[in-house]
Structure of UDP-glucose 6-dehydrogenase:
Amino acid sequence: MAYRLTMVGTGYLGATTSACMAELGFEVLGVDVDAEKIARLQAGDLPIYEPGLEEILRRNLANGRLRFTTSYEEAAAFGDVHFLCLGTPQKPGEYGADVSYLDAAIESLAPFLERECLVIGKSTVPVGTAQRLSEKLTRLAPIGSGAELAWNPEFLREGFAVKDTLYPDRIVLGVASERAEKIMREVYSSMLERQTPLVITDYPTAELVKVAANAFLATKISFVNAMAEVCEAAHADVKQLSLALSFDDRIGGKFLNPGLGFGGGCLPKDIRAFMARAGELGADQALTFLREVDAINMRRRARMVDLARELTGGSFHGCTVTVLGAAFKPNSDDIRDSPALDVAVTISQQGGRVTVYDPAAQENARRAHPQLSYGESALEAAKDAHVVLLLTEWQEFIDLDPEALGSVVARRKIVDGRNALDAEIWREAGWHYRALGRP
Ligand code: UDX
């Protein structure tokens, strides 16, 4: 049977999953309470920057497999399988995650569920949430236990969301019945036929896999950044250290790039929510190391500001500082907890004239931080700069010509916050080149 799918929540995850599941041949209906977002998606206008996604969205709108609505009633009537793709942001002023969007979605959808269906949670949640939502779902649905919950964490990376959705490196299914497993195996049959690794487990394990994966990745980044701190003290070179570590295939080189550290809508808030939840469960000692992971990460931002101030002679007053990059990472327009913008704002608060340029996140940055200046290109942003900071490693910044950039700045000084440039080339072109964790 070809199931009809709904995606409840059409943000990053929901929009991507909607378009990609339609691309796989399913009929898909996306649902969101945000009428403006729904209107844009229905018109083929993707509200986020994600390489390759708009094309897939438009193709599947045109072939009729994909539609969007604000009506939960319509979604309930349409879908055999409902995916929950809602955000779980950090609660203001505390570490825990706010899961109220998930609760609201179940409360809106469940009262219309009059025939058998499977509801699949994809959001990143504190362990224990799925069990609670499962009880709520059967309590509120007219079909009762005929509406069943499963948990299926996603691991998609921004910038690679299409590939990660169509070709996931593993599928994790937290299920409470054989029926749920059977439906999920059918939904993912094309991936399972390719021998994509599959882990079938219970709700709490499925919930934990996701936060454990993000905690591990964050730890790996903070590990190498802790080594960068030691390298700075010992006049050693963390880029070469990281390279040497990477050849040990037990360690590997991925997520071992020293620099300004992690940001974005997932890693920072997920490790904090994980600590908060472990505390509630009485297992807080197990995760105290994540507090260090977070602290190391935040210290990189402070170190970046210090290094930039050193290059402007001990004060930012009267100095123009160019910040290349506003997105939390390249190939994204996402500025949530962006290390680059954090540094830009701090320098501006300390009296510097900050001009930012980002190839995709410019408008988001301008809206969030109108007090900063913005240039329309790297060269325009760098005009008369006393120091240039490379804070998000977009390819176009890596490709910058040191001579061309040198001809517009006031002083040839650059801090490579992502260890992305070839130091030799820049020094040969007369630049004072500095990087985090390197002599
Ligand atoms: C992450 C997870 O990778 C993904 O599996 C999960 O589903 C959501 O969270 P994403 O937020 O898109 O995805 O970003 P990711 O590519 O993981 O990068 C996270 C941050 O770490 C970025 O700010 C990046 O710049 C930084 N990073 C990454 C480093 O500082 N060093 C590295 O070596 C790698």
